[in-house]
Sequence to fold (124 residues):
Amino acid sequence: MFNLLLVAVGGGIGAGIRHLASMGALRLAGPNYPWGTMAINIIGSFAMGLFIATLARRGGSNELRLFVATGIFGGFTTFSAFSLDFATLWERGAALPAFGYALASVIGAIIALFLGLWLARSLP
Fold:
């Protein structure tokens, strides 16, 4: 039950941060392209790689992993919103931007995760 509470609290924090980041991106870039969701997925993947590699290197508790990785990062990253954004672009008839968005989001997130792993493993 305690682990569920850790994930729930972390998820709430991550979702709140995601909302603030999305609103900031909307104000900066406008509503015509889902820049906020894409940036959140890439940043969240980078942070996940950095955190997991650091946790593995320095040793960390399962509780910390649940709170941060499953909770905060799980609440912060937005692949369900990503799917909806893709569908919205597609349904607007913007097939090329939709596929560009999907490729940039997925490939960018994977690259960012590896960069996070590399950075965490390179630090003393």
In short: Residues 63 and 89 are 39 Å apart (CA to CA). The radius of gyration is 16 Å.
